[in-house]
Amino acid sequence: MLAAAAVEMHELVSRILARHKKDPSSLIPVLQDLQDELRYLPKDCLTMVAHGLGISPATVYGVATFYAQFSLEPKGKYVIRICDGTACHVRGSSPLYQAICKRVQLEDGRATSANGLFTVETVACLGACVLAPVAMINDKVYGQMTPEAINIILDELEKEEEASDHICKTAS
Amino acid sequence: MITSARQLADWEQKYKLALARAAAQIVVCAGPGCAASGSKAVYERLKEELMRRGSHVTVDYLLENGTPSTSGVVALESGCQGFCQKGPLVRVEPEGILYTKVQPEDVPELLDAVLQGTVLERLLYHDPSTGQVYTNEKDIPFYRDQIRIALQNCGAIDPEDIRAYIARGGYQGLARALAMDSSAVIAELEQAHLRGRGGGGFPAARKWAIAAAQEGPEKYLICNGDEGDPGAFMDRSIMEGDPHSVIEGMVIAGYAIGASQGFIYVRAEYPLAVQRMQKAVRAANEWGLLGENILDSGFAFQIAIKQGAGAFVCGEETALIASIEGQRGMPRPKPPFPSVAGLWKKPTVINNVETLANVPRVLRQGAQWFRKVGTSASPGTKTFALAGDVANTGLIEVPMGLSIRDIVYKIGGGLRSGGELKAVQIGGPSGGCLPSELLDIPLDFDSLQGVGAMIGSGGLVVMGQNTCMVEVARFFMQFIQAESCGKCVFCREGTLQMLEILEKITKGHGTLADLDSLTELGQAIKLGSLCGLGKSAPNPVLSTLEHFRSEYIAHIVEKRCPAGQCQALRRYTIDPGRCRGCSRCVRTCPAEAIAGTAGRPYVIDQTKCLRCGACVDSCKFQAIEVTA
Fold first, then answer.
1. How far apart, in whole angstroms, are the C-alpha atoms of residue B493 and residue B521?
2. Set of chain B residues whose Cβ sits within 8 Å of the Cβ of A85
3. pLDDT above 80 (res B217)
4. Which of B236, B311, B463 sits opposite A68 (nearest CB)?
5. Could you tell me if A44 and A90 lie in one domain?
């Protein structure tokens, strides 16, 4: 890690720890706040948190890997969550999941696409069973999804990305 | 700041009178289902249209200005109104007219009807089986047999306005409780025989009494909002649609057991519920209904909100406590029960969201009133998330003792597109699948146990003939296997073994001996696991083995999936009559399983075929046939 980045991360961890008064029972909220800022939990961060709270890095690592919300890998810009609740499952969430994995070209069991754009996850229930099967891309819920429909949505997202890339490049 | 029951009653009157001065209230459902169908756009359009016509009026304006308002309409967003199938829903009060599937472009016409005092028939609910048109929500078959206690305000009020809650009699149960001795509060709940709605059905009063009897000043009350069952969204709807009922229930419980600190543990996947609860806690503090000296009684109670981090097992009491303490959410042996030694080893009562939402009503209207609903062993109501292949999906609340058949056919309107029912899955991964013959069982905590199912937290998924029961069992086992915390060997290893056997069967490699292994493993896991997750994990498998054994046998002996769902058992063949020999499928097939000469019908090599179905999608002449 570059020295400047390390200092910056240290400051972020200190700020979050202070917010939770360095209370070891606040480990989960601390990790949640960290992940909100960084979109994932880098390993160095976990060690800093352990030192700050006066607990072992193994405990922090244990908690960070126990809960599904925490990710030790960077997530994509778009997090696609396929609801695999009972209602969605009965109405075809698996073909939907497979279609998305194929579409964004996930390789060897990884959840994030090589271009860093998409992360694909399944979630137990999004509570929109009536619209089954449901997919959620970042905060937006898409109901009654089919492999064709999700491909169209992903095409559009990619097009937007290309367009904004183009704007960035022309601007610079 | 409210300091007495008298002031609560005054506010109730004041708010009701203010609302009565509006020409109408238009309540747009913003529950999870309607929101996903675009209710926000309907609400925005409604407000815009009201402003444009100069007919927009707010509750604040009505409260501040005593003069009668003639044409002003109040627009508000509510929590889940229940009939998700027909969303976005819009209800016009005070008449209670329900409009279904409302789109933003319908708003001007709908508003014309409201302002002229007429009804827009086009958007009313049309019963597909009888053709009858219903104007009022309460007359629609979906709502007719429901009784709303826990959901009484959900979908009726603006959940972010504490005054709206007070206007519906809110916090009066608390006022009554605080005027009583704490032991009398427990006695009232005992008489009501309110049982825990989180699945177990344990009498809430007994938990309270044990905690109340413990010495020492430090005790805790936890509201369990970690609703993780796939197919369940009742607690979410209550927290989002009527957060104050949960807070009121918590303060009453805190007073009864002598706790001064409460926690609400909400699932991380429910960000809106977290927001709403936070806002409601702030408002209750500002109004003197939470914090120091509540309603001038000398009783103090604080509430903090803790977010879960995505672990199904944290719905279990002791795992939830470990999670609040900042550890991995792993259950520990009981006793000691949390009521004796729970959070930070102090006496702790954990009640589910729905249980707590019932408490204010019990205290406000008395145990006798509560016992009039439901059965004598399970009084009151139960909320269910009705989903799957049923015509009317949604959030419902029914009196205990109603049969599943009534729920599916009277409220749910039978199966979608007239299909035939195969099973009802009740209780999520802890519950079981009941065949059609068992649907007349009255729904209560005890009767379902006898047939290998349980009410659980309240997911109710209707399955039609095209659902494969072996695949359903595999699905739940996969869920449980992934969520097992790993502490007990039977649960950790046993669920993995069961999952592998089920996968084998769905792929057509099972043997009849596997069925005995499944039963044996299931029984062992039930006996050898510490917590409810493990103890109930085999239920979906055991109940399908009992009621749908012939489907397992078809997979094993005939290598056939009767529902045609198991991909590996499908057979893909090319109809030589339709195939034009275009070779499109040959290029699509990832396994190079299709061979032949261009211009002549192609053939699929069954030994190479992966059964992925890619060829079916690629064929322009519908020449590829799929047999189950």
1. 10
2. 230-231
3. yes
4. B311
5. no
**Is residue B584's pLDDT more than 60?**
yes
The H or E element that residue B111 is part of is: helix B107-116
Min distance B523 CA to chain A CA atoms (Å): 24
pTM: 0.92
> Where does a domain end: A10, A37, A66?
A66
Give CA–CA dist B628/B613, Å, rounded. 13
The reply to whether A57 and A96 lie within a common domain is: no
Taking the Cβ of residue B388 and every Cβ of chain A, the question of whether any pair is shorter than 8 Å is answered with yes
For residue A29, the enclosing domain spans 2-66
- What was the pLDDT predicted at B291? 96
In a domain, A165, yes or no: yes
Q: Which residues 6+ apart lie within 8 Å of A53 measured at CB?
A: A17, A22, A23, A24, A26, A27, A30, A60
Q: In chain A, what percentage of residues exceed pLDDT 90?
A: 39
- Count of alpha carbons within 13 angstroms of residue A27, beta-carbon side: 32
Rounded percentage of chain B residues whose pLDDT exceeds 90: 79
CA distances from B56 to B17, B64, B69, B387 (A): 18, 15, 11, 37
What mean pLDDT value characterizes chain B?
93
Could you tell me if residue A71 is inside a domain? no
- pLDDT recorded at residue B24: 93
- Residue among B57, B99, B86, B61 at smallest CA distance from B74: B57
A68 lies within 8 A of chain B by CB: yes
Phi then psi dihedrals of residue B441, to 5 deg:
-65, 130
Distance CA B47, CA B35 (A): 16
Residue B188 tokens read as 């009232």
Contact B475 A86 (CB under 8 A): yes
Question: Looking at residue B388, what is its pLDDT?
Answer: 86
Write down the residue that tokens 């890095």 correspond to.
A57
Burial of B557 (0-12, 13-18, 19+ CB in 10 A): exposed
Nearest CA in chain B to A124: B230
A28, A58, B285 from A73: Cα distances, Å: 18, 18, 40
Would an 8 Å CB–CB cutoff place B598 in contact with chain A?
no
